[in-house]
């Protein structure tokens, strides 16, 4: 039995509150159970220096966690500088979003994504990716309405989920209690059309089998398909 009593393939309660920020071109407060992340997308008419004159744009992301998002207070990274974990997660978010954006159609400008974890209970990176796409979609819709874009540069949606082996059983959408004791866990980033963007899998002790990985992959595919539907409903 999972700590929350959920079925092995059951997601936590998921919600998307779009337009959460009054100032950002796109924004979404995404909740996966007790994990809450504010995702914003900001339009920038400039492009990174290394892309100037190449006729292409860029999508990049920053990730941070508020000091009391977890059980104990963490130090603000504005004082200490981003940790290795923070840098790895924000690069993952950026890669995940760029996989579904046509940079030539975006033109020589960039969209900056900010994912700020307000409260953490496992799965912050996957919640960030899933909410960030919603914010990105709103930002692009804004740019098209303003006449800044002629063609939609977004080629597909993208969502992410964590799955793992908890007490020997493959389960979807790990919360902290499960993640902290899981025998293996993996993060899956999957597009709305079912394409794989990235898979991060780790055994926390004994290696896991190909059959167990396939079970996790199956759970992730179903979960991301469900999340894709919820993203579209939130944006409707």
Task: Explain what you see.
The structure is a single chain. The chain is of the alpha+beta class. The protein has one domain (14-235): GHMP Kinase, N-terminal domain (Ribosomal Protein S5, domain 2, 2-Layer Sandwich), CATH 3.30.230.70. Helices cover 32% and strands 29% of the residues. It has six helices and nine strands. The strands form two sheets. A five-stranded mixed β-sheet has the order 1-2-3-5-4. Strand 2 (26-32) and strand 3 form a beta hairpin. Helix 2 packs across helix 4 (124-145). Phosphate binds at residues 85, 123-125. It catalyses: tRNA(n+1) + phosphate = tRNA(n) + a ribonucleoside 5'-diphosphate. InterPro entries: ExoRNase_PH_dom1, ExoRNase_PH_dom2, ExoRNase_PH_dom2_sf, PNPase/RNase_PH_dom_sf, Ribosomal_Su5_D2-typ_SF, RNase_PH, RNase_PH_bac-type, RNase_PH_CS. Residues 10-138, 157-222 form the Exoribonuclease phosphorolytic domain.
CATH architecture name:
2-Layer Sandwich
- How far is the N terminus from the C terminus? 36 Å
Radius of gyration equals 18 Å
In terms of structural class, how would the helical and strand content be classed? alpha+beta
* Molecular shape: globular
Strand content: 25-35%
The beta-strand count equals 9
Numbering strands along the chain, what is their spatial order in the largest sheet? 1-2-3-5-4
Q: Give the helix level as a range of percent.
A: 25-40%
Name the CATH superfamily assignment.
GHMP Kinase, N-terminal domain
Separate helix tally: 6
- Overall mean pLDDT stands at 96
CATH class: Alpha Beta
* Biggest pleated sheet: 5 strands, mixed
When the domains are counted, the total is: 1
Low-confidence sequence ranges: none
The CATH topology corresponds to Ribosomal Protein S5, domain 2
Order of helices and strands: EEEEHHHEHEEHEEH
Protein name: Ribonuclease PH
Subunit structure: Homohexameric ring arranged as a trimer of dimers.
Pfam family, one: RNase_PH
GO molecular function, one term: 3'-5'-RNA exonuclease activity
